[in-house]
Inverse folding.
């Protein structure tokens, strides 16, 4: 029997709330290898990905795209196999009928650390441009990253998230936000 025949259809999997009634992410996927499909509030597919730790990846996607992570479908596998994971990912995207925006135009927003510098206010940008030394520039960038972090945490709190979210403090100096 080929690996292809073991691929469950995306439609056959149940929707799991991204944040459950207790304000937690699907913790049963901690340390699980798997492919996951992320849906928005209207259950429109936004992104398909795979990971060696589905829970950590789901958490990362939630902070990067909090308005687009409401539902998830997931298929775990026992042994790591990039081929199996890629085959499932490809099959689900084909089943969807079109490539989700998170797998094409917005891929970076789903897979890369957030660049807080793009969220600089005109005042922050002016202060940054007029700074004469690197320490002052770093401080401004760090403050922008902290502001954006606070905005993300507020959105997640409003959604009822209780899970602990910790951003990598070293990346803030570069104006980047990613989980630790």
């Amino acid at each position: 029997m080929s690996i292809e025949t073991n691929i469950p259809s995306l439609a056959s999997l149940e929707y799991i709330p991204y944040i459950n009634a207790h304000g937690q992410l699907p913790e049963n996927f901690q340390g699980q290898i798997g492919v996951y499909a992320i849906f928005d509030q209207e259950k429109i597919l936004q992104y398909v990905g795979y990971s060696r730790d589905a829970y950590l990846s789901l958490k990362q996607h939630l902070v990067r795209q909090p308005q687009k992570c409401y539902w998830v479908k997931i298929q775990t596998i026992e042994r790591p196999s990039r081929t199996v994971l890629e085959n499932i990912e490809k099959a689900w995207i084909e089943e969807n009928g079109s490539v989700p925006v998170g797998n094409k135009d917005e891929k970076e927003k789903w897979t890369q650390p957030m660049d807080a510098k793009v969220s600089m206010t005109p005042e922050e940008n002016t202060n940054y441009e007029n700074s004469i030394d690197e320490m002052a520039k770093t401080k401004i960038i760090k403050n922008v990253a902290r502001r954006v972090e606070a905005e993300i945490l507020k959105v997640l709190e409003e959604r009822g998230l209780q899970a602990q979210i910790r951003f990598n403090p070293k990346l803030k100096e570069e104006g980047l936000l990613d989980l630790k």
